[in-house]
TrEMBL record:
The keyword Metal-binding applies. Pfam families: Copper-bind. This is Pseudoazurin. Cu cation binds at residues 62, 100, 103, 108. Keywords: Copper, Electron transport, Metal-binding, Periplasm, Signal, Transport. CDD domains: Pseudoazurin (cd04218). The gene is bcp_2. Residues 1-21 form the signal peptide. Residues 27-114 form the Blue (type 1) copper domain. One of its GO terms (cellular component) is periplasmic space. The keyword Glycoprotein does not apply. It is found in: Periplasm.
Amino acid sequence: MIRTLTTGLALAALMGSAAFAETFEVKMLNKGADGDRMVFEPAFVQAAPGDTIRFVATDRGHNAEINKGMLPDGAEGFAGKINEEFDVTLDVEGVYGVICKPHFAMGMVMTIAVGDVEVPDTFLEGRVPRKAKERFEAQLGNL
Ligand SMILES: [Cu+2]
């Protein structure tokens, strides 16, 4: 009897989380709504474990990929091709730094926070161009 109840609850929890998983659309743009050039929009997404990010190739010539080292321990990185629209589901809590490789130096970067997390000390430790660093810092201000 107790086992049946436990199984039922586990199943309900599983179905509940699946039912509430969200998909966030992030557009890759030559020019954002605020006039900034080469942007992901939105540039910051607060997600929950199991949520999906959909990168939409609205303008041509962009990609979305995890910048080296900018992901939580145990998480898998990803790298989209130029002009590729794709979905990525993030299960591991933490902070993810995403760049467009051709426009990294122009500051085409975005941040995804999964779960209730803080900025890791090492997040901006690697080589990050000045403009990209400024934008990352602004995005991390949401945490
Ligand atoms: Cu780009």
